[in-house]
Amino acid sequence: MPSSPRAKRSVQSPAARAQRAGRAMAKLVKIMATLRSPNGCPWDRKQTHASLRPFLLEETYEALDALDRGDLDALPGELGDVLFQCVFHAQIAAEAGRFDMADALEAIRAKLIRRHPHVFTPSGRPLAPGRQTHRRVASTPSAVLTQWEQIKAAEQGDAGAEKRILSGMPRTLPALLRAYEIGTRVAAVGFDWPDTGGVVDKIEEEVRELREALTENRERAAEELGDLLFSIANLARKLNLEPEAALRAANEKFSVRFAGVEADLQRRGSSVHDATTEEMEAAWQRVKRAKVSRPKRARSSPSATGRSRSAPAPRGRRSR
Questions:
Q1: What is the DSSP string of 186-197?
Q2: Which of 19, 54, 69, 152 has its CA at 20 to 30 Å from residue 250's CA atom?
Q3: What does the pLDDT read at residue 296?
Q4: Which of these, 190, 186, 189, lies nearest to 169 by C-alpha position?
């Protein structure tokens, strides 16, 4: 019987963990092949790379939600859902004779070895003590990041592509996250503010320009607002904060507090639809003074894991 996610496993060696993971991956790949076989599941057989796209995004966000909650009991299942999407895409590609899951695993294995020359030899063996010649130039996280971007640029040149720092960044990334990643990449080559104070000064400058743009036209205001958001994303980077996570937390805090405003007004025989702006502001201040916060979520259990996996997904979509 599978062990509970809550049960701590006995300490295993890296080799033993790798062997166990390999066996589990092989079983998952075999299950996926069965689901896509002529005698498999009609829904799975119908899917394409395009139709699966929303599920990969959804499962990723569910894993992020588990991380945000600190719910390590739910995280293995959510990571498994993300991994299943990867195996699903690889199976479809294998059926078309393009690549399979082994090719995907080999691609990331080779990339990690190439981009960590301070850890591995070109053959993939860990560098022996005393032979880690790159450790002098890649001994800090920032140095490693700089080295990573340099190696990546060299790889693009070897592939015949122009060496561009921002090449290959997905345009489908959420805009705030993309701004953060852009700042991270250019900072790796030294194009950055010297400290957080410089970013704050830039934000204040962008606020002034936005105020001026509000008296002009919508297009100029949109441009200045974008500049302001871009600068804020870079401030998050300088503070070692992930802006998407910070904004999600702010969204949650506001949502909980506004629900408190609704409850406060309801207790007073009113509602947000009937209250004046002043009355809602007074309710908001009462809620803030009461320090209404997000209620703690229950840890994962068969009855407390969010959306039921057995329930049908909306609009004909199905999640794993």
A1: HHTTT-S-SSHH
A2: 54
A3: 45
A4: 186
> Which SS3 state, helix, strand or coil, does residue 120 take?
strand
Residue reference for tokens 């503070």: 239
pLDDT confidence of residue 128: 80
CATH 3.20.20.80, domain 175-240, yes or no = no
Helix (H, G, I), strand (E, B) or coil at 138: coil
CA atoms within 13 A on the CB side of 295: 4
pLDDT value, residue 12:
85
Between CA 161 and CA 104, with CA 149 as vertex, the angle to 5 degrees is 70
pLDDT of residue 302: 30
Amino acid identity of residue 10, one-letter, is: S
Burial class (CB in 10 A: 0-12, 13-18, 19+), 35: middle
pLDDT of residue 221: 95
> CB–CB of 143/151 below 8 Å?
no
Residue 7: what pLDDT? Answer: 56
CATH of 17-115, one of 3.40.50.300, 1.10.287.1080, 1.25.40.10, 3.40.50.11890: 1.10.287.1080
How many Cα atoms within 13 Å fall on the side-chain side of residue 300?
21
CB 238 within 8 A of CB 195: yes
Closest CA to 227 of 200, 207, 244: 207
DSSP string for residues in 43-105: HHHH--HHHHHHHHHHHHHHHHHHHHHT-TTTHHHHHHHHHHHHHHHHHHHHHTTS--HHHHH
- Pairwise CA distance, residues 260 & 176, whole Å: 28
How many residues are given for the chain? 320
| pLDDT for 72 | 95
H or E, element range at 112: helix 101-114
